[in-house]
Amino acid sequence: MAISLKLNGKSHEVDAEPGTPLLWVIRDELKMTGTKFGCGVASCGACTVHLDGEPVRSCQTYIEDVEGAEITTIEAMADTKIGAAVQQAWVELDVVQCGYCQSGQIMSAVGLLSENPKPSAEDIDSYMYGNACRCATYQRIRAGIQRAAEILEA
Amino acid sequence: MTVNTSRRGFLKAAAATGAVLMVGLRPDGVLAAGGEGAMLNPFVRIGADGSVTAIVKHIEKGQGPATGLSTLIAEEIGLTMDQIGYEFAPSDPQVYNNLLFGPFQGTGGSTAMANSYLQYRQAGAAARDVLIRAAAAAWDADPATLDIVDGIVTGAGQSAPLGDFVAAASGLEPPAEPALKDPGAFRLIGNPDVRRLDSEIKGNGTAMYAMDVHLPNQMVVMIARPEQRGALATGFDDAASKEIKGFINAAVLPNQAGVAVYAENTWAAMQARDALDVTWDVSAAETRGSDQIEAEIRAALDAEPVYNVNKSDAAATVAAIDGAASVVEKTFYFPLLAHAPMEPLNCTIEATEDGGILLHDGCQFPTGPHMAMAEIFQLPMEKIRINTMLAGGSFGRRATPSADYQVEAALAFVMTDRSRPVKLVWSREDDLRSGYYRPAFGHKVRVGLDDSGSIVGWEHRIAGQSIMKGTAFEGFSVRDGVDHSSVEGAADTPYLIPGAHFGLTDTEKATSTLWWRAVGHTHTAYVMEVMMDMAADAAGQDPVAFRLKYLDGGEADQQRMAGVLKLAAEKSGWGNAPAGRSQGVAVHKSFGTYVAEVVEISGNADDGVRIEKVTCAADCGVAVNPDVIKAQMEGGIGYGIGHVMRDQITLTDGAVDQYNFPDYEPLRISDIAQIDVHIVASAEAPTGVGEPGTPPAAPALANAIAAASALRVSSLPMAENGVSFV
């Protein structure tokens, strides 16, 4: 079926069957590869995107449910104030190792800072729980979010 | 999106311009710059615009060689870190081999920096030498009076960017042994402010992993696999698959290990594979469960070991323990573990216009799949090329002696008319269920102590599934029947233990076995360090002081191990934990690096343990990129702790019970509150950092739990053996 998607401020017409996860439309149809496949069961967070500003797992978000919604991916984060601050903090602190989960980490971190501008370590641990990092970069993720909060406050 | 499919073509084109300086080893092993000969073996490329590119022979899977090897070249030439970029080397076992592996290109054993340190510094120094001589000639100056600082050649009252001299430098012969910088003059090596070169692209979605390859007209292939290892596909019904839009075809793999499902995209491949009805011949399939594997290992521990690993007098050890004032003993069991790198395994194969094959892969052991491709496609080695891409983790999984997933892709491709590239994609379920595992191991140890609490005998039996036997790597690791990877970290411990005897028995492999971050040290460190703690406890002595007794009076090996132990004790406030906290310590040498860790917890095994702080001290020789080393220790600690907390792979009737992250739960951000890493200043040759942070983490946690709970966890994972976590 033909579906009209609004992604990173642009409209896209895609042909996808109902039940197709948004993840695979973004990656295979639109060929935007910053959003990652890690588990397919919403258990790792690597596929996190924003749907009307809220982080969602795109592997468990179906294409027929997102028509008309504003979808934002990692590729557009630099254009947002919070996204740019998080990316700056990530580079300052060298948060990444293999990097494969980091798009999803950043999408969740932006979601957290959008609703809580000064999160405590406990707030971060609670909000970011669903984003797995097999390299275990967690303590830099925690520090990166707090650094981004500082950047935004300045 | 397009992928660079012709790196060599690019290099040739660049050479033709002449305004490019290549530096590397000539076939005769001599460093050379410029000219056709140097083109064959480049480590450094300098464009006419002065842009410098390090050609990195090791895979970047997060452990930092893209930054590390670039740092070496930038240091020796005289660049800032933002004046150097990197590219991954093509597959060439003669030129880009791991110098510790022989004629084999590959990354493993935490050797990337250890084997490259002098090689890449020499390549940088050779480039510097010809650039300076070219500038000296242009300025009619003495080369000894010139310098390169921040990419600018200066001296003789002049200065110019190094790009001005690339054309002239490319015609000069570099010295066979270029002078290396004095370590006292290092500006980048050892500088904690040097940042990773791959941070920005990994934070903005532009980093390209093999999973991100989209070649024109490519097909996605997934493999329908048997539940039981060793079952063979004999046929299938694809009627339901044909109902899936985007399904193309299905075919039994030539080795019958599964059925290749071809589709237009990943989602179609997943659905079509789920819909496929495969007929399996299970007559030769594995039917044992993990209970049987464990029973077999425990039985082996109760029998005399087959191999006397350290060729010691076992009877004397037993007699010493039997006559000891007190004896501590414990039997340990370590389950199968999956590696589960974040990027599910995948690779893409395409035919090239010259009749060859191009593999796009986050390739850890290029020479293995290179040889396998040559065999499968019946092509000479030079017709096979590998485009090594960023890898989303590995922890050992990408480096199999059998090149397992690359061979799968090749078999899927060889069955087609080769007009369409094939991208093989694994799901997380494939990764956990059809993969290779850290083998199951058991240890049985008895330690005898005299009246003064000193060790008089240490009898240590190990039983488990050899990683190396029966593989192409057997010759590297097996001596007199003993697979060193089964006993490393125990039989070669730096501790000076009187009356130590180590015995080994191999048990049958019920799954494919594979090195897993830190290999044998993943179980030997746990046993050595828990036993040391139990012995200290029995002796009524402080665990740190007790360990130091067995490092006193030794050589550098013992002194370096004692050094990290003392540093970790000091930095952690050992013995002065806040109220409600308990500490545990462990120290271990692996891959040439010494690491001590103190884990501080609150709570206890019954009420719930929380890991409040891990303090780490590491001695890895020269610390090239201190912040990368810290990150590797942080990650290694997390990897070790996450798995012992709650992970295992179990089998029922030969089939893997776990399916995905919900039942193979990764370490989460809330599991460890804080990690502090301290690096010992050292002028020794650099050693590994990717793995050595892992081994001490689990026993330090176990010892902290014992301090809080009087519970010695000897079977893993902890959550299944009496420990709750909060």
Describe this structure in words.
The complex is a heterodimer of chains A (154) and B (726). In chain A, helix 2 (81-92) crosses helix 3 (102-115) and helix 2 packs across helix 5. Chain A is built from 5 helices and 5 strands; from the N terminus they run E-E-H-E-E-E-H-H-H-H. With 154 residues, chain A is of the alpha+beta class. Chain A has 2 domains: 2-75, Beta-grasp domain (Ubiquitin-like (UB roll), Roll); 77-153, Orthogonal Bundle (DNA polymerase, domain 1), CATH 1.10.150. The mean pLDDT of chain A is 97. By secondary structure, chain B is an alpha+beta fold. Chain B has 3 domains: 7-199, Aldehyde Oxidoreductase, domain 4 (2-Layer Sandwich), CATH 3.30.365.10; 211-283 and 345-425, 2-Layer Sandwich (Aldehyde Oxidoreductase, domain 4); 304-337 and 437-720, Aldehyde oxidase/xanthine dehydrogenase, molybdopterin binding domain (Aldehyde Oxidoreductase, domain 4), CATH 3.30.365. Chain B has 19 helices and 30 strands. In chain B, helix 3 runs parallel beside helix 4 and helix 15 packs parallel to helix 19 (697-709). Chain B is globular, with a radius of gyration of 27 Å. Mean pLDDT of chain B is 93; it is low at 1-20 and 24-41.
Integer tally of domains of chain B? 3
The number of helical elements of chain A comes to 5
CATH superfamily of the largest domain in chain A: [2Fe-2S]-binding domain
Described by its quaternary structure, the protein is heterodimer
Query: Whole-number average pLDDT of chain A?
Result: 97
Main β-sheet of chain A, in a few words? 5 strands, mixed
- What is the CATH class of the largest domain in chain B? Alpha Beta
Distance between the termini of chain B: 45 Å
Per CATH, the superfamily of the largest domain in chain B is Aldehyde oxidase/xanthine dehydrogenase, molybdopterin binding domain
The structure class of chain A reads alpha+beta
The helix/strand class of chain B is: alpha+beta
Write down the Rg of chain A.
15 Å
The major beta sheet of chain B can be summarized as: 7 strands, mixed
How many distinct domains of chain A?
2
Uncertain segments of chain A: none
Largest contact between protein chains?
A-B, 58 and 65 residues
Strand content of chain A: 5-15%
Give me the CATH architecture of the largest domain in chain A, please: Orthogonal Bundle
CATH class of the largest domain in chain A: Mainly Alpha
CATH fold-type name of the largest domain in chain B: Aldehyde Oxidoreductase, domain 4
